[in-house]
Amino acid sequence: MPNLLKQFVLDAHDILERMGEALLALEKRPDDETMVDELFRAAHTLKGNSGLFDIPTFTRVVHAAEDLLDKVRDRELSIDNDMTDDLLDSMDFIQQMVEAVEATGGIPDHFTDAAEARIARLRERLPLVDPSAATAQEYENPDQVKPPTTLDWLSRLDESERLSLITDGGADLLGVLYRPEPECFFKGEDPLLVLRNLPHRQAFLISLTTPYGDPGETDVYRCNLEIQALSRAAEKDLREHFRYMPEQVAIYPVARHLLAQPTGSAGCDEGLRDEFLAQADQALRQADTAMLASAAEAMLDMLNPELKAASTLRFIRALALGGADHTVLQALLKAFETGEPPVFPSAELPEPAASSVADATSAASPAIRAAQGSVPSAPPRGGAASVAYNILATQRQLLDMAAPDDQWEGRLNAVGNTVRAMFQARQMTAAVEELDGVLERCRNDASLVPLAFFLDEKLEDLEGETATPAVAAPVAAPATEEPAAQAPATRERAGAEDGADVGKAAEHSDRPARTLKVPQEKIDRLMDLIGEMVVAKNALPYLAAKAEDVYGSRDLAREIKAQFAVINRIAEDMQDGIMQVRMLPVGHVFQRFPRLVRDVARQLGKKVRLVLEGEDAEADKHIVESLGDPLIHILRNSLDHGLETPEARRLGGKPEEGRILVRASQEGDRVLIEIEDDGKGIDPVLIKRKAFEKGLIDEARLETLTDAEAIQYIFAPGFSTAETVSNLSGRGVGMDVVNTSLQKIGGQIRLTSEKGRGTRILLTLPLSVSVSHVLMVRMNGQRYGVPMDVVVETVRVPRADIHVIKDRRVAVLRGRIVPLFGADHLLQLPDPPLANNDDEFAVLVARVDGAVVGVIVDGFAQTTDVILKPLEGPLSSLAGFLGSALLGDGSVLLVLDLKELMHGA
Questions:
Q1: CATH of 587-766, one of 3.60.10.10, 3.30.565.10, 3.30.559.10, 3.60.130.10
Q2: pTM score
C-alpha cells in the first residue's frame, strides 16, 4: 500500500472516531454551534482527503453526510435522535470502507448498492431549496474563472474525436474551463483526479497557465495547469462535481458545429475546388444536404487527407449528414474556399443562463453549498485572527512533513508565498518585511529552520487575538454533567465542569501537533530488542560470580558488578522509555462505550446515563486493546440484565434513568477497571437454581453454597439466566469469554452484587505483558519463577508454628490464618521441602483469586526480569505453568501459575 494511502487510512480512523464522539455530544446539545462547525469541518476534511484517491463511492457517502451537516450548520435543520442514527450508521459504513481500503487498497464493488442506499437516506432529510431565494450578490467572487472568449483550444483536440462528437447524436455538449488554485495541492485537491472523475467526459486538453521559466526557480508545489474539457453530463451534475471549487470553474454550452475547426497544411487544386463549390452551391439552393455530403465524399477521394481543405470537407460531410443549419454549412464552404478558419454566425460564445458554477449555485441540487468553508473568500467562523492562525498553523505543519532534500527550496517558496499573501491581506507590512529577511536567511543556510521558528513566533502572537483557533479541525466530544431529556443514553465525564475538558482539548490543539506517527511493528521491534538486552545484562552477575569463585579474581568481579549496575540502570531507563511509548490511556477503549450504550439503550427502550472516570489511566497498548471485548460484554450484560426499564425503576422507587459507571485507576503496577450499575443486581437464589439445573452443583453443595459464592457461577461456561435468546444475550458465553480473555493477559475479575441495588465488577490488569518481574525459588535442586505481582511476602516459619486443621497445614501470619501448600505436592516432586538449620521452612506468601496462601519451598533466590514465552510443542499441555524464560547463565526457568496449581491442589 502506498505511504500516502496508509496515512489516509490512519487519519480516516481518527476523524471517524472523533466524529462519532461529536455526534453523540451534539445529540445532547443540538444548539452547540462550535460542535456543529467542528463536525462539519471534520467531514469536509475526510471528503477532501478521499479525493486524493480513486474511491468515489467513499467520497459520495461522505459528501451526503457533509451536505446534511451543512444544513444543520445553517440552521435549516435541527439534529435529533433519528438523524443521529442515520449519521452514525453512515459513519459505521464509512469505517467499513476504510477497513476495506486498508485490506485491499480499494473499495470492492459490493459496497456500491449499500452506499447508494445510505446516500439516498441522508439526502431525504435535506430540505427543498428555492433557487430564487439566493441573490447573485451572495456568490460574487472577483477571482471567479470566466468562460473563454474563443474556442481555439478545440482545434488542438484530435480531429477524429471531434468528428465523432458531431456525428454520434449524443446529448448536448458543455465546455468546462477548470483552472485549479496554485495552492490546491496543500488543500488535498488533485486536479487530475477531478478531471478523471468528470461526469460523462468526452475530450479534454491540459495546458500550462503560464510557461515555466528557469527550472531552478520553478516552484514545484504550485499548480500551473489549465484544464479544458467537453462533457455530455447535465449542467447540474457538473455543478455538483465542482461544488467544492466553484470559483475555479466555468461551464458553458458548446454547439456541435463549433467543433469544426479544420487543421492541416494549405493547398488545393483550384479546378477541383471550383468544381466542388459549384456542386455545393447547387445542393444548398436545393436544400439537399445529402447531395452536399456526397459531393464532399467524392472530393475527399481526390485530395491529400493531410490538407486543411480535406479536413474542412470532412467536417462539411459530418455536419451535412447531421442536418446542420445552412448558415453553418455556408461558413464552412467559405473556409474551404479561402483557406481561413470558419466564421460561424454569432461567433461570440453565447452566454449561458449561469456562466459559472458559483453563479448558478442557487439553482443547484439541495446540497450545493456544503463546502463554502473551503473557499478562501468565505473563511470559517471565528474571525480574521482565527483564519490567519489556521493558515499559519497549516504552513507550519507543511514544514514538518517529510520530503526529499532537493525539494526544500520549492517548499520554502510555497510556504513563503502563502504566508506573505496572508500578511498582505491583513496589512501587516512589518511582518512582510520580517518574512523576507527570514526567507533570505533560509536560502543562505539552505535550511527551513529559520522559517519554522518565525512561524512559531507568529502563532504565539496570534493566540491572543483568536479565542477558538482550530488546527486541522479536531473534533472532540464535550463533557456534560446533566443528560439531555431527549437522549435515551447519555455520557458524562467525571470532573468536567461546563465542558472544561473540551476547553482544554481546544487549548492543546491550538499549536501545530508535534507528533511522530510510527508503525506499531517498529515499536514492537524495539520492545523485543530491549527484552533481549534485559536477558543479556542478567548474565553479568553470573559472570562476576564465576570470576570470583572459579578464577579467584575478586577485583575483576567487582568491576563486572560495577559495570552491571551502569548497564542495568541504562537498560531499565530504556525499557521504561519504550514502555511509555507503548502506553495508551484506557480512554482509547472507553470512547467506544457512549455509542454502544446509546444504541443498546434505544434498542431496549431504556434510559441510561453513562459516567466515565479515570480515562487518563495508562497501560500497555496490548493490554488496553485487549480490554475492548471484555468490557463490551460486561456493559451489554449491565444494559440487558442489570438495568430495569423506566417503568420498573419508577415502580421500584428509582429514577427512570439508570446509571452505569466505568472507572479506571492505577495502583502500583496494576490497572483497575471498575464497572458499576444501579440496576436490579444478581439474584443468588436464581443463580443457585440455574447452577443446579445445569448440573454444576449437587444438592449437598446447593445447601451450603453462600450467596457470594453463588454469583461467581455466572463465569461458568454456558451459564446464563436469560429466559430467551436475543441478539444481546442469552447464549451463556458472555462472562465466560470475559474471564478467559482477562486470564490470557494476566488479569483477574471480581464480582459483587446486591439484589435490588446493583452490581459491581472489578478488573485487575497488569501494566504490561512484555517483560515480567519474577521471584526465583528453589525446590528439589531446581529453580522456579513466581510472578512478583502475586507475591505478598517471603517468610521463615518454624516447624512448631505449622498446624494441621482438617488435613490441611496452616500457619498464623500477621494475625491471620494462612493455608500452606508444599511445593512438592503442587508440582508432584519426589522430595518434600527442607527446613534450615533452625528448623524453619521457607514460605512464599502469595495472593491467589483474592485469597492469601502460602507455598513451602526449599529456599529463595533473587528477583529478575525475564521475557516470558509460552510453552510449545509437547510441553504446551503441561498444566500449572505460565511459560518459560531464558536466564542470563543460559538455563531455562519455568514460571509457575499458582492459580492453576491451587485449583488442582
A1: 3.30.565.10
A2: 0.50
